[in-house]
Write a structure and sequence with these properties.
The protein is α+β, with helices and mostly antiparallel strands and about 150 residues long. It contains three helices and ten strands, in the order βαβββββββββαα. The longest helix is centred in the last third of the chain and has 19 residues. It is globular, with a radius of gyration of 15 Å. The N and C termini lie far apart (about 35 Å).
């Protein structure tokens, strides 16, 4: 039975895990939020405890900064991050706290990309689902796939 605190999306991308990882980590601003939104700021330090800061921008110019840290970094295979802490392990609270787990597994000559949002409780997961998790994160996964397949 699936954990009711967990939401996820998965895509088979026709590119190697190394290529998908490269696009994910080096061209993040091009795919990280659903268009027409943009990601004008990506400030990452890809190491455990390193910054995982992002700023999203709406077409109308609203800016939404998100600050976090990386909990696990396995180059080419896995990234785990959270907004529950900022750099230096400073706790911060929010109304949508979760741990994000992104994996890049070889499959069928390509990559099985999976992104999981693991929430503290079922209520927060339901809120995230109702906000359009599947559509939003699905669109982002499609954008990542398009870039990686074009780069393969």
């Amino acid at each position: 039975m699936a954990d009711p605190r967990e939401l996820s999306i998965s895509r088979l991308i026709k590119a190697s895990p190394e290529t998908v990882w490269k696009i994910y980590t080096q061209r993040t601003g091009e795919w990280f939020c659903p268009r027409p939104w943009t990601t004008p700021v990506v400030d990452w330090d890809l190491r455990v405890g390193g910054r995982a800061n992002i700023e999203l921008a709406s077409p109308e110019g609203e800016r939404h900064p998100h600050f976090g840290v990386f909990l696990e970094v396995v180059p080419g295979r896995k990234l785990v991050s959270t907004g529950a802490f900022t750099e230096g392990w400073v706790p911060q609270s929010g109304d949508l706290d979760f741990v994000r787990i992104d994996t890049f597994e070889p499959e069928a000559g390509g990559t099985r990309y999976t992104s999981i949002a693991r929430h503290w409780d079922e209520k927060t997961a339901a809120k995230h689902r109702d906000m359009g998790f599947e559509q939003g994160w699905g669109a982002v996964a499609d954008q990542l796939a398009a870039l990686a397949e074009g780069d393969a």
